Amino acid sequence: MRTSILTIIAVLALGLTATATPKNPDKEETVIVYRNTQSFFDIAGWPDDGLYAMADVHIHEYPSRGEVKVNLAEQGFIFFPDMDLCAANDEFIYTVKYGDWMETYRIKLEIVCDAPTIIAQFSPKSTNGEYTSFTILGVQSFPGNTLAIFDKAGRPVFKEEDYKNTWEGRLPDGTYAKTEDEYLYVFDDGNGNLHSGYIQIQ
């Protein structure tokens, strides 16, 4: 009789564990990630007020084609797909909870083959085969992209949708950027991912 009771308890425990994973998450979101690239993205549903210190995240179902970790300090997830995997899909399900509030999300992961390669160093007057414009290799693979460039005071000096490697350092007043000046680029690849950094003009 004792064995039967323990067996029943074990079965019930397994049943509770199985049903603990929500089958119908409250919301779904899609995130684009790249082959062999560690990606960071925000925790959807994370509180942006004083309750964030009380918030907690629990992953119910992990991705089957990569590894995801929670980074509470940065309020985000870190995902790394299986090596050399691309043109594939994956997903995971998690719950974010704080106070009496709780919401469950399904995050769909689209693993694409290539991230943009940004050449942020160029020389407009080069004659030695160097890049003469701000160049993003394979930019044609990112339709709907937007490039914005700002000076060190945060003022926009260039912006273009469907950028095609045309910026040679020319400023709004028609002059060319000086080599000693500092510029920040922000490239939206059209898939919801932002890439930013500083430009070196020689």
Structure overview:
The chain has 202 residues and is mainly β. It is built from one helix and 14 strands, in the order αββββββββββββββ. It folds into two domains: 23-112, Immunoglobulin-like (Sandwich); 117-201, Immunoglobulin-like. The chain has one helix at 2-19, and strands at residues 27-34, 39-42, 56-61, 66-71, 76-81, 88-98, 101-112, 117-119, 121-122, 135-137, 146-151, 156-161, 183-188, 194-201. A five-stranded mixed β-sheet has the order 9-14-13-11-12, with no helix packed on it. Strand 4 (66-71) and strand 5 (76-81) form a beta hairpin. The protein starts with a helix and ends with a strand.
In which order are the strands of the major sheet placed? 9-14-13-11-12
Low-confidence stretches: 1-19
Estimate the helix proportion, in percent.
under 10%
CATH class of the largest domain: Mainly Beta
| Rg, nearest Å | 24 Å
Number of domains: 2
Proportion in β-strands: 35-45%
**What's the SSE pattern?**
HEEEEEEEEEEEEEE
Per DSSP E runs of 2 or more residues, the count of β-strands stands at 14
User: On the 0-100 scale, what is the average pLDDT?
Assistant: 83
Shape, principal axes of CA atoms:
elongated
Provide the CATH topology of the largest domain: Immunoglobulin-like
Instruction: Give the CATH superfamily of the largest domain.
Output: Immunoglobulins
- CATH structural architecture of the largest domain: Sandwich
**Alpha-beta classification:** mainly beta
First CA to last CA: what distance? Answer: 84 Å
> In this structure, how is the largest beta sheet organized?
5 strands, mixed
